[in-house]
């Protein structure tokens, strides 16, 4: 059985980029389907309450946010690499795309299918996740602006492809391709590819690029229940973080901290700092149900705040 477990749901675009990453790297993995709308009590036990999906689990190590998931999978299987031209350009493009396109993509999406979204889903996203009304009626006044923004961003992708070839950063696929694909995938999969291609004026280069990425597939997955995943975590021991005591703001290993996304779904996760550097932070959490876990977050896009002056301890 594979040690890799992905907690996700089918229509999650952020999950789609990780499913494609698993396919690209040829990794076997276990699929745990979670609800699109919380509560998700067993997943909360694993993450300490982290609100977003997907979550990657490798034994008793839990990876939150797609950037740190990319890095975990890169460590597990370095080739083919997600960073053929170096990490910087792929990370910068990924962060830009995720943050710039998410709201306009939702605006276009709900114009097509908003009336079919359950009320509990809309309420949850407004009250607990996005902080704004993503109903069809709520997004409608800004629809022209959302179309304009998505059209501009898609045109930038076309420019990159004309300059660089088959992929955004060069001849080989990178993490940036998998990220920039996902919100266009969300629209084309739910609203109709022909309609979205026409509305956003997607260039032939972009459509062909999307076809190349879709052809990667999701690799070899095995279904797993949330209860089985929890049992895997409890039976395992977290790996040593390997990051040292290198928090750039000086927070020492052994300190109780909260880690919180800085954009949306701002639910803090509290734990003990066990390792940190400029790119990743790892905190330990404990529970009777799962034992000791190490929960991993990226630094970009997250805030880490010390909650106490706990004595320095070995990771």
UniProtKB/TrEMBL annotation:
InterPro entries: Glutathione-S-Trfase_C_sf (IPR036282), Glutathione_S-Trfase_N (IPR004045), GST_C (IPR004046), Thioredoxin-like_sf (IPR036249). It holds the Pfam family GST_N_3. CDD domains: GST_C_family, GST_N_family. This is Glutathione S-transferase. Residues 2-81 form the GST N-terminal domain. GO terms for molecular function: transferase activity. Keywords: Transferase. PROSITE patterns: GST_NTER (PS50404). It comes from Marivita hallyeonensis.
